[in-house]
Amino acid sequence: MTAPGPSSPAGGAGSSAWRPILRRRLAVVAGAIALWVAAIEVRLVYLQIFENADLLARAERQHERTQSAPAKRGDILDRRGRVLATSVDADTIYAVPSEIDDAADAVKKLCDALEDCTAKDRQGLIERLGTRRAFACAAASARRCRTDARSTSCAPTCSASVR
């Protein structure tokens, strides 16, 4: 083993020589972080003040864009050629419950336009549109039909994908 020298951390006259070096390194790192944070803040201010109108227009276009429906899919058959599932064209009405202030009034107007709402339908719509969800199906003209060997049962459907 060697004896500790004057600049070694184990002791000696120069054992505190590392402190100014550490302070300079910490100051450099702190300065670099401060510059990085300042650059991010300058960019955010620029976007919020100078690019605000353009960004709002882009967001509006993205939010309210129209998407074309893909072509009708073919039937799904079992190995004997019997239809297991088929595509059905449907007109569906969707709502954004978080933007509806009065669910009962919205349901009244919707049912007046559709002209075929029962009291049970109205109550179900009021419950669905009264929530604070981002998406709700209001009405669908398609029916989901299940056919098996014994019977055919149909129920109204309302399915969609939220993007």
Q: Structural class of the helices, strands and pairings?
A: alpha+beta
Shape: elongated
Biggest pleated-sheet summary: 2 strands, antiparallel
Model regions low in confidence, pLDDT < 50 over at least 5 residues = 142-163
Mean pLDDT: 76
What is the terminal separation in angstroms? 69 Å
* Oligomer kind: single chain
How much β-strand is present in the residues? Answer: 5-15%
Rg over CA atoms, rounded to whole Å, is 33 Å
Spatial order of strands in the largest sheet: 1-2
- Residues in helices, as a percent range: 40-55%
Secondary-structure element order, N to C: HHEEEHHEEE
Strands, count: 6
**Helical stretch tally:** 4
Word description of this protein:
With 163 residues, this protein is α+β, with helices and mostly antiparallel strands. The protein has a domain at 91-156. It contains 4 helices and 6 strands. The strands form 3 sheets. It has a two-stranded antiparallel ribbon. A hairpin with a 4-residue loop joins strand 5 and strand 6. The longest helix is centred in the N-terminal third of the chain and has 32 residues, at 18-49. The termini are far apart. The relative contact order is 0.08.
